[in-house]
Amino acid sequence: MTVFFRFLTIIRIFSRYRLDELIPKQHLPLRARLLLSPCALFPAARLSRGERLRRACEELGPIFVKFGQLLSTRPDLVPDDIVAELNYLQDSVAPFPNDEFRSIVESALGASVDDIFNDYDHEPLASASVAQVHTATLKNGKAVVIKAIRPNIENIIAQDVALLLKLAQLLEKYSTDGRRLRPVEIVEDYRNTIFDELNLQKEAANASQLRRNFANSSLLYVPEVYWEYTRSNVMVMERIHGIPVTNIDELKAQNTNMKRLAERGVEIFFTQVFDHNFFHADMHPGNIFVSREHPELPQYMAVDMAIVGSLTRENQYYLARNLLAMFRRDYRQVAELHVQSGWVPAHVRVDEFESAIRTVCEPIFEKPLKDISFGHVLLNLFRTARRFDMEVQPQLVLLQKTLLNIEGLGRQLYPDLDLWTTAHPFLERWLKKRFHPKTLWSELKRYGPDWMEKFPQVPQLIFNGLQQLQNIGQLAPELHKAAQQLQKRTAQSTRRYWVAGSLLVAAIALAHPVIYEAVGTYLHHLNFTATSIILIGLGIAALIKKS
């Protein structure tokens, strides 16, 4: 019954803002049109579609506000005018009573608030749709913040998400435009995101990892998590006292180097994405502060690590090369990289894709570099690729959203920010480092034990493959003859493969300090270079002999 009344509330607000006008009703079945018929009782909308959607989210409550915020981060799927309006959604929610907050904390930690903290502020520091924050002081005198999940929020979220999913399924099923916007994917993404935010231990783990990545760094400070006071619904964290990054007047009052501050934001983004492969994916201004120390070399401070992202090694590589190729206007390479990476299907004609990319990007690059939005270039590239059946991975969307946030913030701090001046040398340096012998050697040591474990299976896999070729050959004499020739060549190559493989295994073994100790006194007293030369010489001799 509660779900039914909630559904009626949604329909009423949906009708008041005439959101039915956003749906092409001619594609809807009769039942759906009847359901939307009460909307006609309300006057025609005079506000823009984006403003109507924003106001409806605000009236429907915190879960829909959060959903609207998520929509604003999906410019790859949502029209620009709606994104622009949804960006005004504020996650400011009426706080729940202090007694409830205290009860949640004491139940989770198994002790009285008075036994854990020296003092505890009854008034919340912040109140959002999912959690509420109070300040306190630990018994050892350290200032902290206590974050607790709102009571009964899971049931409310589950009900609202279920209703949103039903609406999304209807839109996707009966609207051509709805299928293009992929509303079911957006709602499912939202469900995963918001339920992740309900687990504060996960957020705490993200914060610890980010803090470790920037340990002793002058770029970014991440507050410490106090794990002994952290549970799935309660988290205690070091309190920071920075300047909100949007408080431009206060930043200028302490003579903050605004150009350096903007550039450092860009540097933090690329460091997280490429060096650490672990990036804060919710870096909107409300989660970012600036340290009051060293205004000439300003340091950022970040909170709220509920949403983070990472890329596969392949995506890191292709993304870096794509960005470099784009800003060199090498559209052919951009198209080829999309096919090589598997971002677009192999059947896509590279010349047609190249032409589409050129059409979108060339007008952008006619502007001065400082006026070009890096994030919007990436957004336009993804939109173009979608026309060629590109399936954008969620992590790439997170990255795009984070880049747009960082770039927008950077230009707010310093309007003449030339993001490419900071990004270009970073990407060049990262690509060179990726193929440096030391990096390759580190990769060999890291993955060597796995290769040693799997290596004995290789001959059997080769044999099975040849056996399948022989079976095919029995059905087609021509294929059978080709299979015999391939088998003969492979047999010769396999002997070489075994010797080369043995050489690789030996090299890996010597790279591992424990195995190195076990190879015996004779090799142990040689230095690594001499040992390697002996192994390579033996390997070459073996290959010559076998051939």
UniProtKB/TrEMBL annotation:
The keyword Repeat does not apply. It holds the Pfam family ABC1. InterPro entries: ABC1_dom, Kinase-like_dom_sf, UbiB, UbiB_bact, UbiB_kinase. Is probably a protein kinase regulator of UbiI activity which is involved in aerobic coenzyme Q (ubiquinone) biosynthesis. It is found in: Cell membrane. Its EC number is 2.7.-.-. ATP binds at residues 125-133, 147. Pathway: Cofactor biosynthesis; ubiquinone biosynthesis [regulation]. The chain crosses the membrane at residues 497-516, 522-544. It comes from Cellvibrio zantedeschiae. Residues 89-338 form the ABC1 atypical kinase-like domain. It is an enzyme of class 2 (transferase). It is a multi-pass membrane protein. Keywords: ATP-binding, Cell inner membrane, Cell membrane, Kinase, Membrane, Nucleotide-binding, Transferase, Transmembrane, Transmembrane helix, Ubiquinone biosynthesis. The active site is at residue 282. This is Probable protein kinase UbiB. Belongs to the protein kinase superfamily. ADCK protein kinase family. Belongs to the ABC1 family. UbiB subfamily. Its main location: membrane.
